[in-house]
Amino acid sequence: MRYRTHVVAAAGTFLAAASLLAHLSPSGAAPARPAAAGLGAAGAPAGVPGPPSALLQEGSVTAAQLLARVGRCDQVSDGMFRMDDEDDEPTVPVCGTPGAVFWKADLDVDCDGQATAHCNADTDGSFQEMTAFTQSDGRPLDAERLPYVVVPDPSGTWDYRAFGIRGGGLAAVVHDGQVRYAVVGDTGPAGLIGEASYATARALGITPDPEGGGTPEDVTYILFRNTAVRPPEDHAAAVRMGDRLAREFVAGAR
């Protein structure tokens, strides 16, 4: 629910270089990432966060299959969205199919929700200890551990509620050849689009720092209509549902 921050170009270059050096072996080759699943309810990040060094995939549907399905935009929003406050013009439409809505934007890191080691008022100057949607026990979501996406607050441009999108609904996020499943977890400013939780960024290999991380482009968000992951904090349940619905989606059934 916070407003976004821009990464200063020089700082971004430094962070990228530092991350690359941290992952290089003495021979100069990047070590392979272990073939483990993404973050789950018990998969808390350890140590200093940074982008992973190789690709992983959740489920059986590939990024290429999903991107082929969303190659055409049938616009369902009444206008466009900005990705950041500083953008001169809104450029991002919300597109739709009978069973999903989708958009392609940047990824700004949302750390709102439960206060944790990497998401708190000290690490994020815009931190709010709440999310628009909650866990099954009524507590805010845990941005550090749970992959979730952020939808714009309802407006005359687009109202997610009118398209069967709800808190705890299923989403697929695609970036750099990877697919990650998530839930709809928070809302953001009505005119801006392109935001997801710390856990989502980290799982996609994007630097998850809420003050200087994220990525400026090439993130595709696919939100499945009239779905509900139960409980919303169960990432494994999101992956199981995501794999099933994504297969239907790429087959043209949604």
From TrEMBL:
Species this chain originates from: Streptomyces tremellae
Q: Which InterPro entries match?
A: Chitosanase_fungal
Q: Which residues form the signal peptide?
A: 1-24
Where would you say this protein principally sits, based on its record? secreted
Q: Where in the cell is it found?
A: Secreted
UniProt biased composition (Low complexity): 32-47
Which keywords appear in this protein's UniProt record, sorted alphabetically?
A: Carbohydrate metabolism, Glycosidase, Hydrolase, Polysaccharide degradation, Secreted, Signal
Q: Where is this region: Disordered?
A: 32-53
Q: Which Pfam family, an example, fits this chain?
A: Glyco_hydro_75
Name under which the protein is recorded = Uncharacterized protein
Q: What is the taxonomic lineage of the source species?
A: Bacteria, Bacillati, Actinomycetota, Actinomycetes, Kitasatosporales
